Amino acid sequence: MDLHHPHLIGDCLIHIFTFLTEEDLISATSVCKDWHEAAETPWLWRRMCLQRWSFCNFAVPGSEHVNHSWKRYFLRRCHLEMKMTEGRSGGYICKSLRGHTGRVVGLVYLQGNSAQLPHLWNSSATVCSASTDGTVRAWNIQKGELLWCSPVQSPLTAIVSDEQREVVITADSTGLIKTWQSRSGQEVASFATASPHCALLQYNVNNNWFLTVGTSQGSVCTLADSALTKSSSVMVCDTFKVNLLLVSPDKKWITAGTKDNDDLSPKVIYTESVTSPSEDEDPLCRSVPVAGCQAAVFIPTQPARLAVIHHNERPNNKVLSVFDVTLKKTKYKSEIQVQQVESFSLTLNTWSSNILLEARDSNCLVLAADQTLWVYSLKGALLASFKEHTMPISSMCVDSFRVVTASQDLSLRVLTWRSDRDRGLTLESRYHLLGGSHTMSRGFTHVACDYSSIVASAEGNDGKDVLKAYTFTS
Fold this sequence. Notes:
By secondary structure, the chain is mainly beta.
């Protein structure tokens, strides 16, 4: 090696260091000046970040006053994930958020730490909750502070949010839909549906804002922009309430249906036909060829792949079928095609009608019913099952890092994803987060997560629900 060209030594060291683990790379920094300079090369740490997480947002590893570096990003994110994986006392802060005088019907993140855009050390993560006491409340979950509370109205029944537009949407028991400015709590607009039950679905298409509402009468109504201007209405399950409402990842399809009738099929609706309806044509809609839908989810890594749990011919038998939804256009008409790609029987052994279904990626489906959690591949292989709750699972949150189940036994179960060389992606059970005393609460009813926190609602014995917020910090 030519010692008169020291950059050659540095280049060789950097290449050799690509074979080291992070622990060895850190040790290399203390050997000598040349090793220190090579081991601190940002390219090495960027490479290590992208190998571990595939997506990193370097713009947010700390505040504007912190020295940004890929090494700092890697070490702090590893430290945070270790805390979230171990769940030890002192690795997280738990806050009880009190103020509601009724049942919490839902909670959503207004400003969270995304797995895709991990603002890992954002201390201002905000959650909004809706209650039968008729109020919407926004909370800073790390500080445990109430940020704002809406005026009292009729008991609320549903809540969703749009973080991008900073808007919260609620429905009450009279069918009144309202939008709220998420920073101030100021009411933006309202729309009356006259439906005591409303399912809410918010999505953006080509930078245009839409809200689709499923009603008790079986219709689906689509509202446009912040003024909630009615765009269209279509009947999907006459006289039965719409309690299944999903939008595909490519935003081209809406799935709507009911879980309350074993003979009815869910329907897929071409989004453009309800957001930009034609005066002389009905919205483009087609039934999914299954009956008795119990749960459904769009696969997040596919444009429009729908998984549906439905009844079989035999009682108590459940089947999971997967369909690809496409649009076939000809010179004279457009036709929806729903093509089955997989179907297999489930061994759930449950009479429960409350079946939860989520998808982690294109080949991993997570199901929950009663006290049990199952993980299936897309072809029906049972990858894992867990029965660690003593009472039924009431809610579930799935992301790229973990699965959190909330139960009526007043505990949250945290499981994390792990890549196994032989079995592929598997789920590992980690720990419980306890929600307090059964003398005060009956159990958890809802749970939501962002990358570094978990928030759940605990049903109070006195009728006043409490939020429990668990925040992990690096």
